[in-house]
Design goal:
Elements: H1 3-14, H2 42-51, H3 54-58, H4 77-94, H5 99-108, H6 117-128, H7 134-149, H8 156-163, H9 174-197, H10 208-214, H11 218-236, H12 243-261, H13 270-286, H14 299-302, H15 304-313, H16 317-328
Helix pairs in contact: 2-5, 4-5, 4-9, 4-11, 5-8, 5-9, 6-13, 6-15, 7-8, 8-9, 9-11, 9-12, 10-12, 13-15, 13-16
Length: 337
Amino acid sequence: MTVREELERAEHGRLSPLAAFADQSRGRLRFEEPREEDVRTCYQRDIDRIVHSKAFRRLMHKTQVFLRPEGDHYRTRMTHTLEVSRIAGTITRALGLNEDLAEAIAMGHDLGHTPFGHAGETALSECWGQPFRHNEQSLRVVDILEKDGQGLNLSYEVRMGILGHTGPSVPETLEGQIVRRSDQIAYVNHDIDDAIRAGILTNEDIPRSISRLLGTGHSQRINTLVCDLIRTSREAGSICLTPEVDKALRDLRGFMFERVYRNPVAKGEESKARAMLQRLYAYYIEHPEALPEDFQPQLSFDGLGRTVCDYIAGMTDKYAVDKYTEIFIPSGWNVRG
């Protein structure tokens, strides 16, 4: 028996019958022959494939809410991803579900985010003429774009969890549903933390009806939400919050849209970011030969618009600014003599 088989057998002994067991996965896009030296389950292998990918490394230089903030302590897509993973891990462990599957989904869920957050998503949607959704792009990254067009060949359950972390498609596994909830819990609360750091909010600004139920501080709110979800899900056999806490979370999200996500201070540079990405898109549509060499083969089977979207979506904030500067901003002219 291989180490992998021992780990798979151990899952059946320690996890809930409701868990997604690694040896019952629906498999990968392309079949891979099991190797005798395997020491990881399929979900553990997927975690490593994601963490070692180029798209994952780029998350550290992509905006969460505040565009290119001055300061080292604002969240990025990378830190957001890690916070989602930790919250999901706490919940899955408490419910006896598969932590490895939840971690793999969490690590991959935002790989398709554009530079400059949702402003970039809006810009590409307007340019491309059809909705550009980051969850769909995240699936495209792991299925196709990584490893020079080979993709990461992840397990079905991980792929569907990535796709369903937001939007109308809800993951089939409870682990995927936990990541979906953990994403909401993480971003609302850490965005409050960042907004307070930026001087846009204070804790006292949060409506008392929400604070009375969820708590008055960052850790209190997360603890309330996580504990409520664990207790309620245990009783229900599905992933859910009590109606009161669920409403408080929705109200808190609505408050954040009103005070932060549409705040002219937090979002003051978004119009510039959108315009910059739109101009980059137009440039590469007119000059496809300027696309990097590794994107050139894609033009023949994905088309120009799709290929340009993939290239721009993969940019970090800094890279997008650098390319814009290189293409559109005149360089200084040094006169000798």
